[in-house]
């Protein structure tokens, strides 16, 4: 039997081709459609890099020119008249709200007591982290801000901030995270308020000299733990005082725990005056950040009715009681938005699911916390 030079042999009348070196190399698998699309997108992105760079330069130049023109005309330099689409689905352009560049520090402190870590489930801790984040954000951009302290910061809550939220809280300004309890936080808050940077008596604290109390002049304040179980109702916020908000999300499993916690320490308690101003179609259950926001609104407006109407979620169907008026003496009634189920809907839950630097929080369960800060539970 003879073999041909082409690498074939005659066996049974059949020509069998011997494998060559070229045929030993396996062909590359064809690219899928998705990979081809991705390659084309990447290529188009690279090709447009220079154009995007030029557009950024042009945009920055126009922004600087607008700021320069605003300064020359005596207007605020931070307001940029950018267009944005309204949320009504019509595609109409809505003006961007002017944002204040500077907030005013007042001599008042809010403490969020996070000493309930072991009483909460994982999802509830996630909700609390969201509420703490929102509380910081609201205070940071408020027209009149308070000193904000987070006490008993540790355990699973701290792990979440350090890991899931990538430790971004370390760059927050105007807030203190303390391992100590709320009493230690209150002592530190008193030192902050008495310092040169303690704050100014403006906003709701701005009173004529004759109307100022001895406590206002002496800088003497008090520590009050906000809890719905308190027999006392808060009528106003006082300067140089510290208000403690219980950071507990528990679906109302641990009733009375914040009130007992305060009484055991000999700390004065009070509840927000929601029942004095509002009629609700559901229980007075508020998230921690809602109570912080209500107090911030009062510091600006000096009016509980306005603060409640602006902050309390519409799903609770809150309206002002008969005869209650806002500061301009015009009776105001919130439009009832009564849902068949007063538990937070998916959309309502999302308002407390704050993400910090892109980290997504899980939906809050029932944002019912024991304190007035996280669960002002009163009967109308």
Helical proportion, percent range: 25-40%
Strand % is 5-15%
Spatial gap, N to C terminus: 107 Å
One letter per element, helices H and strands E, the order comes to EEHHEEEHEHEHHEEHEHEHHEH
In round numbers, the mean pLDDT is 76
Instruction: Give the strand tally.
Output: 12
Q: Which structural class should the secondary elements be placed in?
A: alpha/beta
Radius of gyration: 31 Å
Helix segment tally? 11
Strand order of the largest sheet: 7-6-5-9-8-10
Oligomer: single chain
- Please tell me what the overall shape is: globular
The biggest beta sheet reads:
6 strands, parallel
Summed up:
It contains eleven helices and twelve strands.
Keywords:
380 residues, alpha/beta, six-stranded parallel beta sheet, two-stranded antiparallel sheet, 11 helices, 33% helix, disordered N terminus
Question: Which helices and strands, and how do they pair?
Answer:
Elements: E1 8-11, E2 14-17, H1 33-47, H2 49-72, E3 83-85, E4 93-95, E5 104-113, H3 122-141, E6 144-151, H4 155-164, E7 175-177, H5 182-194, H6 214-218, E8 223-226, E9 242-246, H7 257-264, E10 268-270, H8 274-277, E11 278-279, H9 288-301, H10 304-311, E12 319-320, H11 346-350
Parallel strand pairs: 5-6, 5-9, 6-7, 8-9, 8-10
Antiparallel strand pairs: 1-2, 3-4, 11-12
Helix pairs in contact: 3-4, 3-9, 9-10
């Amino acid at each position: 039997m003879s073999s041909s030079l082409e690498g074939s042999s005659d066996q049974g009348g059949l020509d069998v081709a011997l494998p060559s070196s070229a045929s030993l190399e396996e062909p590359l698998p064809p690219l899928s459609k998705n990979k081809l699309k991705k390659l084309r997108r990447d290529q188009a992105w690279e090709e447009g890099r220079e154009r995007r760079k030029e557009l950024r330069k042009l945009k920055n130049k126009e922004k600087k020119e607008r700021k320069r023109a605003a300064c020359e005309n005596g207007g605020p330099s931070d307001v940029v008249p950018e267009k944005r689409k309204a949320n009504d689905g019509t595609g109409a352009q809505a003006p961007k709200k002017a944002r204040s560049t500077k907030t005013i520090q007042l001599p008042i402190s809010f403490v969020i007591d996070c000493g309930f870590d072991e009483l909460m489930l994982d999802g509830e801790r996630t909700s609390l982290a969201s509420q703490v984040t929102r509380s910081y954000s609201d205070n940071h951009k408020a027209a009149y801000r308070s000193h904000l302290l987070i006490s008993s910061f540790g355990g699973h809550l701290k792990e979440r901030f350090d890991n899931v939220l990538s430790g971004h809280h370390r760059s927050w300004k105007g807030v203190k995270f303390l391992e100590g309890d709320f009493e230690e936080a209150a002592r530190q808050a008193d030192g902050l308020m008495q310092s040169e940077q303690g704050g100014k008596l403006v906003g709701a604290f701005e009173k004529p000299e004759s109307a100022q109390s001895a406590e206002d002049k002496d800088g003497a304040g008090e520590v009050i733990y906000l809890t719905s179980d308190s027999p006392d109702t808060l009528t106003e916020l006082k300067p140089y005082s510290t208000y403690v908000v219980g950071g507990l999300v528990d679906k109302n499993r641990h009733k009375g725990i914040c009130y007992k916690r305060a009484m055991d320490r000999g700390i004065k308690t009070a509840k927000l005056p929601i029942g004095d101003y509002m009629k609700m179609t559901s229980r007075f259950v508020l998230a921690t950040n809602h109570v912080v926001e209500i107090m911030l609104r009062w510091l600006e407006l000096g009016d509980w009715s306005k603060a409640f109407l602006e902050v309390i979620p519409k799903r609770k169907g809150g309206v002002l009681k008969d005869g209650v008026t806002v500061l301009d003496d015009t009776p105001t009634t919130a439009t009832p938005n009564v849902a068949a189920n007063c538990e937070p809907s998916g959309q309502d839950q999302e308002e407390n699911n704050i993400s910090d630097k892109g980290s997504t929080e899980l939906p809050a369960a029932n944002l019912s916390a024991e304190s007035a800060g996280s669960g002002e539970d009163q009967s109308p």
